[in-house]
UniProtKB/TrEMBL annotation:
It comes from Demequina lutea. It holds the Pfam family LysE. This is Arginine exporter protein ArgO. It is found in: Cell membrane. It is a multi-pass membrane protein. Signal peptide: none annotated. The chain crosses the membrane at residues 6-31, 43-63, 75-95, 116-141, 153-175, 187-209. The lineage of its organism: Bacteria, Bacillati, Actinomycetota, Actinomycetes, Micrococcales. One of its GO terms (molecular function) is amino acid transmembrane transporter activity. The keyword Transport does not apply. GO terms for cellular component: plasma membrane. InterPro entries: LeuE-type. Keywords: Cell membrane, Membrane, Transmembrane, Transmembrane helix.
Length: 211
């Protein structure tokens, strides 16, 4: 890599970690998938999350100031819708955990990796934190005068950092998959579902009160 591209790549890596490291609803879903089904399924989900982060970053770099005012003009609607989707995901998980006691002892298969990838692409695209980050990043990069190569290095750094972190979460979930008991896994699944619901509710409250 050229010396002049190292700085934007590192800046992109920092941006990627900034969105990936906070353990929100998607991170919890990824961990839970690894706990229940091991690394293969969780890795497919991790790649999906990282790819969406990369795509949003590329869009922010490309359209900059044109997209940010448009999205902001929608007010609280995107955040309310996204929060509702997250709550729905959490409720579905919670009902499954509470009504199927044996689900974690012999959990249903999540589908082929490609299907898992597609599902997590959709979930991440609707994730409130991802949407908020895209809006903020578009505004920050609106006035940049960097050339194409520097912007490409920034986007590549963002994607690489995000994917690396998500794969790390997948690995952690897979380790837990091998070590925890079915009962402990069920309790963790219920707790994770409750946290996901609370995160979605917090997004809606924030959008309506401070939006």
């Amino acid at each position: 890599m050229e010396t002049g591209l190292i700085a934007p790549a590192l800046a992109g890596a920092t941006a990627g970690l900034a969105i990936a490291m906070p353990l929100g609803a998607i991170g919890l879903l990824l961990l839970r998938l690894g706990m229940l089904h091991g690394f293969r399924s969780a890795a497919a989900a991790a790649l999906a999350v990282g790819c969406v982060d990369l795509a949003y970053c590329a869009a922010a770099v490309t359209v900059g100031s044109k997209a940010s005012p448009l999205i902001e003009s929608w007010g609280a609607v995107p955040m309310v819708v996204s929060g509702a989707v997250v709550i729905g995901i959490g409720l579905r998980q919670l009902v499954t955990s509470l009504t199927a006691p044996d689900a974690l002892a012999a959990p249903p298969k999540p589908g082929r990796p490609l299907a898992v990838f597609g599902r997590f692409v959709a979930l991440t695209a609707m994730n409130p934190l991802t949407v908020l980050y895209f809006i903020a990043l578009a505004g920050v990069l609106a006035g940049t005068s960097s050339g194409f190569e520097a912007k490409a290095a920034f986007v590549a750094g963002t994607g690489a950092a995000s994917i690396s972190w998500q794969l790390g979460l997948a690995a952690v979930g897979a380790v837990m998959h091998r070590t925890i008991s079915a009962r402990t896994g069920r309790v963790l699944g219920i707790v994770a579902s409750a946290i996901v619901i609370l995160l979605g509710a917090a997004v809606i409250v924030r959008a309506l009160v401070w939006g």
